Amino acid sequence: xxxxxxxxxxxxxxxxxxxxxxxxxxxxxxxxxxxxxxxxxxxxxxxxxxxxxxxxxxxxxxxxxxxxxxxxxxxxxxxxxxxxxxxxxxxxxxxxxxxxxxxxxxxxxxxxxxxxxxxxxxxxxxxxxxxxxxxxxxxxxxxxxxxxxxx
Length: 151
What we know:
By secondary structure, the chain is α/β, with parallel strands linked by helices. It has helices at residues 15-26, 50-58, 75-78, 87-96, 100-104, 128-150, and strands at 3-9, 32-38, 81-84, 106-108.
């Protein structure tokens, strides 16, 4: 049975779609199922930000078919690991957890990366360079997550 991983940011159009695409590109659906969601419902049904789509494509990953959705309570039951992009979103998710088991599924995505940086910055209001930086951070984190999930 595959491990189920959920990536979460605020709007589910910049960071978490990239994290979903990156981890999916490093694993197989037979071993890892990856999805993403937002803690806010601003963009439900929309594709990822065009800048996220572009930086993913530059790195050989197509995330253009993803659609934004909001985090829901059932995600605690449906996923083994839930990775938040920053402390604010982690705090929002922790507030929704109903018990220790659900809390134990939550962590910051960069906590497993060994990097000094612990939060993935939101690139939404910045330029393309911010999206490239976010891609690089998430690529490193997803490489570590892949190693940990495989063994």
